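User: Here's a structure from my thesis project, written as structure tokens. My advisor, Dr. K., wants to see whether a designed sequence matches the one we expressed. Can you design one independently, without my sequence as a hint?
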């Protein structure tokens, strides 16, 4: 906690200096992005809505798994810090080293592959995690799938939004993420109090399966659309 506090203070100081330098360099104020019910409804009627739903569900997975690792690790006699070492280490490393390559691939197949990793990892927490190594391994697989898929569907949300509402689509994307991250742990806590850690893991597994089904459905629909002109 001391390390986290010092790091947060250093980050805050850095952004304060960066903000001061930017304010001096800017010659004209930027226009704020505004969103209305009408523009939100237009975005949610587009294909961008699927990416928005997926990031909300992905946020629920991260929020549920991250918030209750103390309970999960205690049930197995493990150190919960191993989860964050594996998850954050894999997520940060992959975003730094291969995210640029991944986002240049075909987005829907890439999203399907990454959501498959997420699903495998979540199911792994409920089945094959039994020691420190498998704990870090499952957390790392989840970090790779979750961390890279966020970048892929973020691009999809922007590219599939109505042309004049890209900024609004990204606002809704961020909102859905935070709803998932901070909203789902409330329900996961209720599940843990009523049915234990297994109930929480079951709910997260269902969400992961739903995210995978959305990714698979989008990928299949794209393939069908591409094959339709050839059939004609």
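Assistant: Designed independently from the structure alone:
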């Amino acid at each position: 906690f001391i390390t986290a506090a010092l790091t947060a203070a250093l980050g805050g100081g850095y952004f304060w200096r960066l903000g001061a330098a930017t304010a001096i360099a800017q010659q004209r104020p930027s226009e704020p992005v505004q969103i209305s019910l009408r523009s939100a409804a237009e975005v949610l009627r587009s294909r961008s809505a699927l990416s928005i739903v997926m990031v909300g569900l992905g946020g629920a997975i991260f929020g549920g798994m991250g918030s209750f690792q103390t309970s999960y690790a205690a049930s197995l006699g493990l150190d919960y810090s191993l989860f964050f070492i594996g998850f954050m280490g894999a997520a940060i490393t992959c975003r730094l080293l291969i995210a640029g390559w991944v986002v240049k691939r075909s987005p829907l197949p890439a999203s399907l592959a990454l959501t498959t990793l997420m699903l495998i990892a979540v199911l792994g927490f409920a089945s094959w995690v039994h020691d420190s190594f498998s704990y870090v391994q499952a957390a790392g697989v989840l970090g790779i799938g979750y961390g890279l898929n966020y970048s892929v569907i973020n691009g999809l949300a922007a590219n599939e939004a109505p042309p004049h509402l890209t900024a609004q689509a990204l606002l809704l994307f961020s909102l859905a993420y935070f709803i998932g991250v901070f909203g789902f742990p409330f329900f996961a806590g209720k599940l843990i109090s009523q049915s234990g850690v297994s109930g929480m893991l079951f709910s997260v597994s269902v969400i992961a399966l739903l995210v995978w089904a959305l990714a698979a459905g989008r990928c299949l629909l794209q393939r069908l659309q591409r094959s339709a002109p050839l059939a004609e």
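When you compare it with your expressed construct, this may help: Residues 42-231 form a domain with the Growth Hormone; Chain: A; fold (CATH 1.20.1250.20).
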